[in-house]
Amino acid sequence: MNKIFEFCAWHSGKLTVGALALAIVFPFVFTSSYVLRIAITVLMYIVLSLSLNLLVGFLGQMSMGHAAFWGIGAYTAAILSTRLNLSSLGTFLAAMVVAGLFGLLLGLPVLKLKGYYLTVVTLGFCEIVRLVELNWMDLTRGSLGIAAIPPLNFFGQIFKSSRSVYFVALVLVVLAVYVVHSIINSRVGLAVMSIRDDDVAAASIGIPVFRYKVMVFIVAGMLAGLAGAFYAHYISFIDPSGFTTSASLDLVILAIFGGQGSIPGAILGTTLLTVLPETMRSLMEYRQMIYGVIIVVMMLVKPDGLLGRVNFKYIRQRLQMKAEKEAKA
Amino acid sequence: MSEVLKVSGVTQRFGGLVALDNISIHIGQGEIVGIIGPNGAGKTTLFNVITGIYHPTEGQVFLEDTEITTYKTHEIAKAGFARTFQNIRLFGKLSVMDNVIAGMHTRRKTNLFDAIFQTGRRRREGREAQEKAEKLLKLMDLWEDRHSLASSLPYGHQRRLEIARALAAEPKLLLLDEPAAGMNEQETEELREMVLQLKQMGLTIFLIEHDMKFVMNICERIYVLNHGVLIAQGTPAQVSQNQAVIEAYLGEED
């Protein structure tokens, strides 16, 4: 296993390019709309799980309300495109701004709350957002939902075929990976991870803990909002039942299963957990049970998730150090 | 001699408990000053007041000429105090190198915008941080461990890493909370040499320590705290002859 990780760390650049190439070729090899629909779902969930990973894996703050941001993004896009006929670029940006604002709103109680207490607030937040979506008839049409949301359209081009939607989703994944990767490998990310590991020590070296926590809530909200906007255009009908606490819990499982604080982990875990239930369709009602067993076993064997304890950057640095030493000797 | 730290009439109450009672101390530029006292004397509480973890019930704390009594912890760190902790507090899932670079937080400027758009500032600061970390890690004899996880280091190394991280903030005053605790004789001796080296570099150091040999050897002045009250101060020789100090440590003669 360690050999595999070392190999991946050493060739991470090539592997990333390889994976991206595979993802680009994929819709030309698998053309069935069923497979592509699963692939699109996987890609959207990767964006969600990456954004939640910012909170859970990198900041160390469990959030049980992440589906709320997803829903806020979806409703923003749905409302703006059905009423104002805004193009997808506009709805995507608006969804990010609105979800980011709600991230700020949710982030503010962090000032006083920590750990489980904040988790409970995120739970309540999700419920409040759902109830607003359900009851603000004029804006959201309540449980009737918003139907006939226009398909994705950028610069006058309409993206309706499965393949073209797939590529839009892929671009969002690349964007999300890039943003999360850039943040965690910078001074900002180091500060965020310091807060996760020890907030008292982080403050003692001059890191304004509160400001960074709120910042992460905003960025995580924006990315989830983006996924929501995509979802609204792709699925063309949304109602409040999609963005419940239970959906939030599913996202938490996705974020934890692959590995907290690991980008490849989030991608791998999300892919496995989304594809697996599909492959077990023939098992009918047993599939939820099998899914549950996998998660329980996972938590017993690897509580940090598949790649939660594997830091490819550090493995690569150690290998480099070893290689340099050998070169000297 | 200009004063780096001045604590003036600080009292800290927790409910009915008086943890610190009207404490006044001062530390001049370039000094190594120790604070000793039995367990529960209030030494760490004093450190927590100085670094803003507690805000004192009464009294004032000054950094040079600036009053920092009501500053938040991160603001005090930025103003120039860096500390280590009695129970080591490292960033366990980060590498040794990243712990030190995290310590440079207040000396770097890369923000979210720089991070996402990979600006020149980010690249330049990243390079500078690496170079500075290399110097600090070599100074604290941790260079070989640079890519290990902080939590995987042996105890003595973890203590040294905490000092390296504090130094990365380029503090005007370094506060060490029991730096030699749990170390064997050889490790303590190595630590002593490192602290002396820091002094030669012009650093001002304030330390809590139970290892008397260590304190007496290294400090120019010592404060003695007992039950939240300052009972003695002076050179190591003066303090070790002081009747009140002997009584505090050994009990009164009947």
List keywords for this structure.
heterodimer, A: 329 residues, mainly alpha, 15 helices, globular, B: 254 residues, alpha/beta, six-stranded mixed beta sheet
Global shape of chain B: globular
**Per CATH, what is the topology of chain A?**
ABC transporter involved in vitamin B12 uptake, BtuC
Describe the largest sheet of chain B: 6 strands, mixed
Helix content of chain A: over 70%
Mean pLDDT of chain A: 89
- % residues in beta strands of chain B: 15-25%
Query: Which strand-content bin applies to the residues of chain A?
Result: under 5%
Number of helices of chain A: 15
Count of the separate structural domains of chain A: 1
The CATH architecture term of chain A is: Orthogonal Bundle
Question: What do you see in this structure?
Answer:
The complex is a heterodimer of chains A (329) and B (254). Chain A is mainly α and 329 residues long. Chain A has a single domain, classed as ABC transporter involved in vitamin B12 uptake, BtuC (Orthogonal Bundle), CATH 1.10.3470. Helices cover 75% and strands 2% of the residues of chain A. Chain A is built from 15 helices and 2 strands. In chain A, helix 1 packs across helix 15. The model of chain A has no long low-confidence stretch (mean pLDDT 89). Chain B is an alpha/beta fold and 254 residues long. In chain B, the strands form 2 sheets. In chain B, strands 6-7-8-3-9-10 form a 6-stranded mixed beta sheet, with helices on both faces. The radius of gyration of chain B is 19 Å and the shape is globular. Chain B is 39% helix and 24% strand. Chains A and B meet through helix 8, helix 9, helix 10, helix 11 and helix 15 of A and helix 2, helix 3, helix 4, helix 5 and helix 6 of B.
